[in-house]
């Protein structure tokens, strides 16, 4: 179940995607191999970095990215904020990975029972401090979810998913760098949701089927 080595995954984002899918499969089936996590790997200044995926995830302490995808040091370039809400600095970070590190796969990773999405569902009148930024960013997804079902539990699940879809769309249209790379097929931008009970990451089908055909430049 190892599937693709890191060089192949780095060169071709479709292999990168499969590498994440297989890594998560190992994790959810308790067969993690903990690659590149020895002391030697972690303290190796010669390693450089060629991360094959950028993960835009939630700051939630129960979603440790390397562990749930069973990857090691140098594999994943990660930004995490509550509800994986993005702002200018996150965009710059992601662009840096795409332009300078040449990472070709971006995964927006939401998760079940997300506290930030749950907070946005409650639409508090006056959220304290800068938390209002998070609430406002997630609000459109939460409103859409509220309109589509009456069940509170389903509402939260729908909002988590919708929030990921909104964020995937935002990155695909982000001028000038990501949009251009996405349109030319150099860069894949997909969405996924992590289920904390099963340990499984579900890649959202519609974000995968809507990908432009990847043109391999090698
Ligand atoms: Zn969360």
Automatic annotation (TrEMBL):
SMART domains: Pro_CA (SM00947). CDD domains: beta_CA_cladeC (cd03378). InterPro entries: Carbonic_anhydrase, Carbonic_anhydrase_sf. It holds the Pfam family Pro_CA. SUPFAM superfamilies: beta-carbonic anhydrase, cab. Belongs to the beta-class carbonic anhydrase family. This is Carbonic anhydrase. It comes from Leeuwenhoekiella parthenopeia. The lineage of its organism: Bacteria, Pseudomonadati, Bacteroidota, Flavobacteriia, Flavobacteriales.
């Amino acid at each position: 179940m190892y599937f693709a080595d890191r060089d192949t995954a780095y060169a071709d984002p479709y292999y990168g995607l499969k590498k994440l899918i297989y890594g998560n499969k190992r994790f959810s089936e308790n067969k993690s191999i903990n690659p590149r996590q020895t002391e030697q790997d972690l303290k190796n200044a010669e390693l450089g970095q060629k991360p094959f995926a950028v993960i835009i995830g939630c700051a939630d302490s129960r979603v440790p990215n390397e562990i749930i995808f069973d990857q090691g040091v140098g594999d994943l370039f990660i930004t995490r904020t509550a509800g994986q809400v993005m702002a200018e600095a996150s965009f710059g970070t992601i662009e840096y990975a795409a332009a300078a590190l040449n990472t070709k796969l971006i995964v927006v990773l939401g998760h079940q029972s997300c506290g930030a999405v749950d907070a946005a569902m409650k639409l508090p009148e006056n959220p304290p401090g800068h938390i209002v930024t998070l609430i406002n960013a997630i609000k459109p997804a939460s409103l859409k979810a509220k309109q589509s079902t009456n069940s509170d539990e389903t509402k939260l699940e729908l909002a988590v998913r919708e929030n990921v879809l909104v964020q995937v769309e935002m990155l695909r249209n982000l001028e000038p760098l990501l949009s251009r790379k996405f349109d030319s097929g150099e860069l894949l931008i997909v969405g996924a949701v992590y289920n904390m009970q099963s340990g499984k990451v579900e890649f959202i089908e519609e974000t995968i089927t809507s990908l432009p055909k990847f043109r391999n430049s090698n």
